[in-house]
Amino acid sequence: MYVYTGISEAQKIGKYGVDESARLMKRLAYIYRRLMMVGAAHMPARMNWHFKAGLARHLFEDSHAAGLFMKRASELRSPSVQQLKDPDPWLALFFDELLMARSDYELWTGIYGVVRPELRRLLRQYAQDTQPLVDYPTLRAIKQVLSDLDEQTAWGEAIRPALLEDAAFFSAHRETYSIITDDESTAAVFCDELRKLLAQVGGFEGRALKQAENVPDRKRSQQKYNMPLRAVRDPRMGGDTLGRTGVANPPTEPELARIIANVRTRQEELGAAELCAATMVLQNNMPWSFYEDLARHCWDETRHTLFGQAVLDLGGYDWYSMPQFKGDYDPHMMKPVANSYIWLSIGIEGSAMRKDGMPKEARMLKAAAEKTDNEVVKLFAQCVDFDWADEVTHHQFGRKWAEELMDDYRTSERIANREMELNFARMARDTCSFWEDKPDSFNKQMFLNDWKDRLRPELLKELDERTLLP
Ligand SMILES: [Fe+2]
Ligand SMILES: [Fe+2]
Asked: How many domains does the chain have?
């Protein structure tokens, strides 16, 4: 069909007028904004490595969906959507309760068992019922979001058995590990409560509460959600560190050993992603574009982590059994989060942009990739090429938000530089103490040489005198 540009049913009477469509778009924008924030709040708190990564990707996709629906609502004569208001206290309560999930699998049931399937149903229904020609821009937004939802729910089903396996393992080893887990039967309580609540408040469509006796109570959300002070890792990995520990089976050839050490550093960027997630949650009342930038930043740092993981796995280098680096999250949670975000985006990412930073690394790898058949080197060269592009964007985010957060850029820079010195001293201490008692090797000498000058006693003394995290 070529008439009406191929839009079928161009003459049907649709279910929605502008007012009703705008109302739904506002609700969808709110739902996706809250869903994004639930993902951000839980990403540092959840245990399963792959689940954390999926949460980061999906919170970015959720920010995109929220932006699309917000824009569409504003086109439908509702410019007030930009003010990020809560459209409905009952819908807010639903997300407050979802936020209080206590384990990986409980969160899974809430997001992938209730919210996403319900959103999929609602959006498919809308697409079917609306007038396809007059409401084309809404349909286009919905099509993009539905395509993400299809992938998200498929991924949710794929990771489900892994989370249940974790639950079975940790419940069988309660005396060794203090990880809270849920299985099908214990998570069903939380999941049923969410379903009941959603039905009670009229679903995501928001058929408003008609009867006063139906007004739901707060349950778990009578308490406040607290961001974890320490990022959670699977305790079956090699423990935590604030230093650089390389891989368990490093190559002996010096040039490749240096490259693999740098690949491991990429795999260790999850803490930076978690810091972005914490910034989204803890830095309130910023313009919407701040949260969009941070959602992107969070997913990018997770991608960098996955770059590292993919390259190490390709080469058979063991990163999983090694101590997991948390220097980009744990030590920074004792500061106002704006301070820590400035350290990351102005300090670390600013210095990565200097000539001797990523540009040098990217060029060196490109040259190495051209003269070798080693797929590990070729893949990593490509990763760093794109990583460098991402870091330029992140530093721009930092420049954009520093003044808003700290009043002026120079102060931000001074704070960032000081935090970098402290952080390097902390990293140097953990790096040197890790390598100290290891047998001599090229790898050991490389790490000790890289870090020995950063061991500054006056800074370490200052750090020791600070209030330590509980
Ligand atoms: Fe990165
Ligand atoms: Fe970055």
From this structure: 2
Closest by Cα among 155, 157, 148, 153 to 60:
148
227 found inside a domain: no
**For residue 269, which ligand has an atom nearest its CA?**
1
Residues in the chain: 470
Q: Which of 159, 214, 156, 126 is nearest to 35 (CA)?
A: 156
**Quick one: what percent of the chain has pLDDT higher than 70?**
97
Tens of pLDDT, residue by residue over 107-132, are 999 999 999 999 999 999 999 999 99
Cα 349 to ligand 1 centroid, rounded to whole Å: 8
- Residues 201-241: tens digit of each pLDDT: 889 998 766 666 678 899 999 999 999 999 999 999 999 99
Its domain, for residue 89, covers: 3-222
Same domain, 348 and 452: yes
- Closest ligand (CA of 349): 2
Residue 325's SS3 state is strand
Per-chain residues with Cβ under 5 A from ion ligand 1: 269, 301, 304
Kindly tell me if the per-residue pLDDT of 248 is higher than 90: yes
Same domain assignment for residues 45 and 128:
yes
Query: Distance, CA 188 to ligand 2 centroid (Å)?
Result: 38
Rounded Cα distance, 341 and 153, in Å? 31
Residues 292 and 218 in one domain: no
Amino acid at 244: R
172 with 250, same domain: the answer is no
Let me know whether 257 and 201 are in one domain: no
Domain presence at residue 230:
no
Alpha-carbon distance of 232 to 213, in angstroms, equals 41
